[in-house]
TrEMBL record:
This is HTH-type transcriptional regulator YobV. The keyword Transcription applies. Keywords: Transcription, Transcription regulation. InterPro entries: CBASS_pafABC_assoc_protein (IPR051534), DeoR_HTH (IPR001034), HTH_11 (IPR013196), PafC-like (IPR028349), WCX_dom (IPR057727), WH-like_DNA-bd_sf (IPR036388), WH_DNA-bd_sf (IPR036390), WYL_dom (IPR026881). GO terms for molecular function: DNA-binding transcription factor activity. The keyword Nucleotide-binding does not apply. Gene3D superfamilies: Winged helix-like DNA-binding domain superfamily/Winged helix DNA-binding domain. Residues 2-60 form the HTH deoR-type domain. It holds the Pfam family WCX.
């Protein structure tokens, strides 16, 4: 929309002394002629923009022009800025522009103090090495959310069962360093959480849906995983050489010293493929003491792994 572009140009010029018309044209994917028309419109609205020609010239705001910032305190603005930084890798132009807007209302005399506040606490949710496929899925789902469009995708659940799904998207959730889509599954006729990394062939359909009103307090990502019907109490013993791993994954209140340099841990987790993978990551430093059926299952998985690698080793001469 033109009004969005006009506001964005003003915000950019508030934060930067000068920009070239070609830079703005490329940024908003319009022609240079359109940018100059936008500048005339902004000037007509009472916001003083000046243009200079020649080497070192460009488009800029009249010296001293600022926006009013009486709504929020510096601390509140810094907190919002920090929160936006945490998801800026996935927010695209919208988040970057909003951070520009926040910066624009900070007087020059306070800009150093503001930058200090916004670097005191950094949260970065992006993975090591940005996942382009994940970024593309997030962008498509954000479009579907804004347009109230149904999405369709191939999905493999935690038990390895594959199916083609279509869902009405409601919320994107970042939980435990993984992105999920919360939406109404047309196959199951109920709301479900879908892990984005398990989605394949994701498309946005032409069909629209009417969004229901949902209460955040009733959404399942904080409580559904720990329903009593889905969890099992498991007793683990960490050997001394795995002590640091236990301390990395569990709260100190969950760690009971065994008197020999190790720990015993009692946890309640859902019993599914995730639990077995989670326990296997500790290798030989952990032993499941209870329940017996999980001990047996892990023993079978470990034997299968050993057999696979033993077969591969037989193909190579011993040194």
């Amino acid at each position: 929309m033109k009004i969005d572009r006009l506001l964005s140009i003003v915000i950019l010029l508030l934060n930067r002394r000068q920009l070239q018309a070609k830079e703005l044209a490329d940024m908003f994917e319009v022609s240079v002629r359109t940018i100059y028309r936008d500048i005339d419109t902004i000037n007509a609205a009472g916001i003083p923009i000046v243009t200079t020609q020649g080497s070192g010239g460009g488009i800029g705001l009249m010296e001293g022009y600022r926006l009013d910032r009486n709504i929020l305190t510096d601390r509140e603005l810094a907190d919002i800025f920090t929160a936006l930084q945490s998801v800026s890798s996935y927010g695209g132009k919208e988040h970057n522009l909003l951070m520009e807007k926040i910066s624009s209302v900070i007087p020059p005399s306070q800009s150093a103090a503001f930058r200090s506040k916004t670097t005191q606490f950094v949260v970065d949710f992006s993975p090591w090495g940005l996942d382009r496929l994940l970024e593309e899925r997030l962008a498509l789902l954000k479009e579907a959310l804004e347009e109230n469009r149904v999405v369709a995708f191939d999905y493999v659940n935690a038990d390895g069962e594959a199916s083609r799904r279509s869902a009405e998207p409601y919320t994107l959730v970042l939980k435990g360093q993984a992105w999920y889509l919360y939406g109404r599954c047309e196959l199951r006729q109920e709301f479900r959480l879908f892990k984005l990394l398990r989605m394949k062939e994701l498309v946005k359909e032409t069909r629209e849906f009417t969004r229901q009103e949902l209460k955040v307090q009733e959404m399942p990502w904080s409580t559904d995983w720990h329903r009593n019907t889905r969890t099992v109490q498991t007793v683990l013993h960490f050997a001394p050489e795995g002590k640091h791993l236990a301390e990395d994954h569990f709260d100190t209140t969950q760690l009971a010293p065994d008197g020999n340099g190790g720990y015993t841990v009692v946890i309640n987790y859902p019993e599914d493929g995730w639990l077995y993978g989670f326990l296997l990551r500790f290798g030989t430093t952990v032993e499941v003491l209870e329940p017996e059926h999980i001990r047996r299952k892990l023993g079978e998985l470990a034997a299968d792994i050993a057999a696979k690698y033993r077969t591969n080793l037989d193909e190579y001469p011993q040194t």
